[in-house]
Amino acid sequence: MTRRRRAAVLLGLALLLGGLAASDVAGREAALRRAVGPTVPVVVARTRLAAGAALDARHLALRRVPARFAPAVAYASTAALAGTRAAVTLQAGEDVVPSAVDDGNREAGAPVRPGERVADLVARGSAELIRPGGRVDVLVTREHGDGGGATTVALEDAEVLAARAAPAADGGDAAGARVAVSLRVTLRQAVYLAAAQSFARELRLLPRAAGDRRHGLAGTTVGSDLR
After folding, report:
1. For 37-109, CATH number?
2. Across-strand partners of 223?
3. pLDDT at residue 66, rounded to an integer
């Protein structure tokens, strides 16, 4: 084999290996995007902001994060914060959530009574039926080691303080519709719901009829075998 032909063969081999490597990287990136899921815009602080600082475009930025990692209730545009101020100190890059915003219409602090807390969560449910001022029950489904599962009425008659549609975790259609809500709860309930978002297979919100304040089902559990 002549030197020129050997060089041509080596060049062709290098180009082939380069193409295979690029294809492998592209495939890995696509797989990672599928695993992470769709992204959503979230408003963050551009720099450190002291309490009382104006929340305007100069001090805010948008970043896109996977929907599963986004705050349950967040702002998707800086325009939505026009005329507001920081209710607490925000660090650079920190998500701007409703509890950190003072819109001038309420006293500093969360819109709850002493002893209550605001619990933010994302669960399956209809954003058309679950709205601020309404009430919901919260169902928690957990998996068993044998592959089965059980669904429990974890919370009854919780007041909805804020609600918005959230992207489906798998990018699916309305059958997997989810809603991000802020609920008025006790501290104990808030701790349980925060843990449930980590250990539960699914959280589901059941909207209540107006005026329905009946209780008594909390703790009711049904297994996957309906026993």
Report:
1. 3.90.1210.10
2. 150
3. 80
Predicted pLDDT of residue 204: 93
3-state SS of the chain? Answer: CCHHHHHHHHHHHHHHHHHHHHHHHHHHHHHHHHHHCCEEEEEEECCCECCCCECCCCCEEEEEEEHHHCCCCCCCCHHHHCCCEECCCECCCCECCHHHEECCCCCCCCCCCCCEEEEEEEEECCCCCCCCCCEEEEEEEEECCCCCEEEEEEEEEEEEEEEEEECCCCCCCHHHCEEEEEEEEEHHHHHHHHHHHHHCCEEEEEECCCCCCCCCCCCCEEECCCC
Domain boundaries, the chain: 37-109, 113-227
Mean pLDDT per 10-residue segment, the chain (227 residues): 66 66 63 65 90 89 81 80 87 86 65 82 90 91 75 90 77 67 91 88 90 78 59
Query: Which residue from 118, 153, 113, 111 is spatially nearest to 136, judged by alpha carbons?
Result: 153
42 contact partners, CB below 8 Å, separation of at least 6: 62, 63, 64, 65, 70, 71, 74, 75, 76, 95
* Integer Cα distance of 103 and 114 in angstroms: 21
Residue 215: exposed, middle, or buried by beta-carbon count in 10 A (0-12, 13-18, 19+)?
exposed
Of the CA atoms within 13 Å of residue 44, those in its CB half-sphere come to: 16
Q: Tell me the pTM.
A: 0.50
